[in-house]
Fold each of these.
Amino acid sequence: RAAIGSSRLSVTPHAPLLPVWTVEAALCAVGSGKMPVATLLPFTATPNRKSAGPTSFRLTEKFILLLVFSAFITLCFGAIFFLPDSSKLLSGVFFHSPAVETNTRTGPDSGDSGSAGNDERVLAKIRKDHEKALLEAKDTLQKRPEELNQEIMNDKAKVAKDSMDQDGKDANNLPVVQYQRPPGATGHEPLDPETRDRRTKIKEMMKHAWDSYRRYAWGSNELRPVSKQGHSSNLFGDIKGATIVDALDTLYIMEMFEEFDAATDWVDKNLDFKVNAEVSVFEVNIRFVGGLLSAYYLSGKEVFRRKAVELGEKLLPAFKTPTGIPWALLNLKSGIGRNWPWASGGSSILAEYGTLHLEFMHLSKLSGNPEFAQKVMNIRKVLNRLDKPQGLYPNYLNPNSGQWGQHHVSVGGLGDSFYEYLLKAWLMSDKSDEEGKKMYYDALQAIETNLMRKSSSGLTYIAEWKGGLLEHKMGHLTCFAGGMIALGADGAPSDKTGHQMELAAEIARTCHESYSRTALKLGPEAFRFDGGVEAIATRQNEKYFILRPEVIETYMYMWRFTHDPKYREWGWEAVQALEQHCKVEGGYSGIRDVYASTPNHDDVQQSFYLAETLKYLYLLFSDDDHLPFDHWVFNTEAHPLPVIKKDRTDPDRPNEVE
Ligand code: DMJ
């Protein structure tokens, strides 16, 4: 036993001096038959049975002993590793697993029934837990994605609520809001196969535009698709990532969620407003604030609300003027503002200060800070105190004196989105903003009377007004008006709904003509109705096309309100032209002259191409319940913002914001 039990074989004093062998080595060598019997002899050198000690065993006896022992060892190992529930034996017996001990000792049924009974109970519990988990998983799988998202949001809101301070503010000093996604954030495939294919095609275009930006210009404001590098216009100062923020909601509504997540991550980690640079208040508001707000309302991700409010607060110093009419340009660090040097004696511009309303109302709602809403409501007050020539709003207003600058009026550049925001303020307030409504319909009447004309061949257009004289030119930007008039037609006073729908359709037709009369089937920046031409650009500096959305925007609204298939056809014509002439290997580019037979690319992929042009195209080939108009209003950069529903229980409180 001593020889076997100890780890080393001790050598008897009588034995000759020999190397020390381990039992394992000896067994191994014997077992493998490699050790000659003679080699073992030194241990058993004395054949005399009477001599004391283990060395007196005979060789055969030793073999038998070794065999018995190894059989025993094998049995033990077999029992440990191969009998059922051996793991428990291992953990319970050898490793003294506390889990096993607790279960067996403190379980409700613990008693003297023995370990077999305990095992049964443990197994039964595991089975029960398993079944419960399966049922829960089944339950989860049966839920619709929206329900799941809503549950996650509710849980998040609950956690946020639990961690808020005494004023009901969260860690970012924002009020806790119960996020509820408005309906139609994503759509479904249209039934008609052709429409479905066309919609898929638009998504592929978005993918090409986005992937190219991601590959060549990630983090820059825009992409140069021909030279395959980043591009930054000075409209955004040192703020970066305009394309990312502008594209967020388009990615979401097209269900490009991997791309949306990458964009979200960039916003979270890199979007920085602490810049010592001058920005355009209008551009930053419509693209960045608008883009962030939409991304928040579509996804419910708090990072977007936080960033939108942070940026909104940075824009507030722009309103520090004697009248409260904001500056066009603002240094985000110093808070010092000024106006464009070219704008009529230091005036602010109607389309710029008049295109803050929708975003600022939502900023007040999401931040709990009424200042945003007060600032834009004050703009209305100033405008309503002023006399308007022929009921029209001039493009220039001096923020110091509160007086109009030059009497230029336009529904295109410098004026356009002011009118759009009057109508949409009313719609976004769930039709409770009566002031906005009246201002819109009065202005539209003045525009119709003073600016709308018909060409000799019957094309309706909206001219520009300069001190009482008409310039018979219509900008590509003005083409948005077809969609706006259609959107407002339903609420038009004095039975004018039908008439306004006709006007909208006529403008859509004129703008379509401006496309079809070019060589490349894409519209010029401005077209004229004088000197013997109709809907054609005559000046070289008006022949370019920079991927603008306005014509397609009008097709989308007209399609929604009429379901006349021609609007989808016209949209498809534009898609084919974009693919043929604007698509390049590194994205989509604008064109310098739409009348030239081959395109000369301007090497810029504008951020509004992803925000607006592709979004409106996608919606043109989607069903009406995708971003339905009774729940969503688009800002001027096509960022959908939810209608702020009236609190029906309180007649004196028209909507949450007010
Ligand atoms: C966009 O940035 C907005 O639509 C704005 O109101 C004017 N136009 C450009 C795109 O053309």
Amino acid sequence: MRLVLLGPPGAGKGTQARMLEAQLKAPQIASGDLLRAAVRSRTALGTEAKGYMDKGALVPDELVLKLINERLGQRDAQGGGFILDGFPRTVAQAEALARMLETRKERLDKVVAIIVPDDEIIKRISGRRTCRNCGAMYHVIYDPPRNVNLCNNCNGELYQREDDAEDTVRMRLEVYAESTKPLLDHYGRLGLLAQIDGMGRPDDIERRILEAIGMNRTARTVEAKG
Ligand code: AP5
């Protein structure tokens, strides 16, 4: 399954992509995670990207496309599909992705947009905490860790992303409305888009996504056991 998860910042794309990895037997490929890794490693690309990310602006297409192209070339993303999270974010990126896939004689199977209202997004993002060590995600109210500021999985330190400050989040929402929302029409015209309600428990949202891509829980359970 070659799937794109679309949606505003904080809609739950990362949460859902991680949940879906096992169901779809396909890796999550998150452009934000790839960029943050480049920033941490202090590569030239990461240093250039950081200035844009700190402001809540989009990183220039050529930098993002380079990272995505490299990542799609890795073994786990070949043949069995992938779950793209946070990419594409502009129509130009979507067109570049289609060209990349065409050279592999592949095309997207589905694009699922997770729809969440802005006031809920602010609540979700302001309470998000992420493990520095393994990347696991929590929410101080909706999904708190067992021990304050420590990851349940690996005891790593939980931190708040620098771009999750409220005014940066508002900027990210504006950028979403201006540059990313047009992708809904783009993928709608291509007949690939399903829009799902992103409100509710993560399990319910996962079920809606599975339905949208033609899988259901029964099939999923049988597959997981097999
Ligand atoms: P990126 O990292 O992609 O951020 P984003 O798209 O803004 O999305 P988030 O990671 O903030 O949210 P999410 O939808 O994954 O939600 P999550 O599951 O974490 O991008 C960061 C920056 O990198 C961009 O601003 C840009 O500068 C740059 N960038 C990245 N990709 C780019 C590209 N393609 N082109 C150019 N620039 C690019 O959930 C959020 C919180 O809510 C968590 O705490 C979670 O626990 C909680 N939560 C999740 N689901 C639920 C639920 N159902 N109910 C209650 N709480 C929930």
